[in-house]
Amino acid sequence: MDVEAPSELKLLEIPTSDNGTEVLWADVLGGVVHVVSVPVFAYGVSRDAVISAQSHGDRLRLVRVLRPSPGATVRIYVAQDAKASDVYTQRILPDAREKGFRIGPATFLDPEIVAFHVADRAELSPVTAHLDGLAREGVLRFWELGDPPMSDDGNADDDDSSTKPWELVHQLPVEGQRSLASMH
Prior knowledge:
There is one protein chain. Residues 152-157 have low confidence and may be disordered. 16% of the residues lie in helices and 41% in strands. It starts with 7 loop residues before the first strand and ends with a strand. The chain has helices at 84-99, 124-137, and strands at 8-15, 20-29, 32-35, 50-56, 59-67, 72-78, 103-109, 113-118, 140-147, 166-170, 179-183. It has two domains: 9-69 and 159-183, no CATH class; 72-147, 2-Layer Sandwich (Alpha-Beta Plaits), CATH 3.30.70. It contains two helices and eleven strands.
């Protein structure tokens, strides 16, 4: 009887178009790399995507997406007088449960931003319609899709190396708990 090797959690670097690097967590099992974090700023990749990556020191670095996530990443920017994690936990998550939307986990970049996972891309239309309503109410300033991209205008691929380099490192995701990220 063959015993399957245990999976290994590794940090995964994803370069962004504005001279930054978002560092997510990935699960590596038998050479297959699955994204487990919810990206905040990286476009074109979501939780549960299967990717190819190369070693980059003690981390991995994204090469390309082999199989997109069955879900999607939505990023919300809350009103100036609100805290993003509070809006998500007290308003968006309860509304989603009531309406039967399968969302979560989420990554909080308080006070302004929450990125959350929508389990099935087929549910994007009702989820984003709900977010449009929250924007009309003034709860959100706006929302955007991180994956799939909102348009094919190429903006996500524009290189802006004139800005100061930055890095956003995700904490290890824990089921049932909030995921946080910190800028460096």
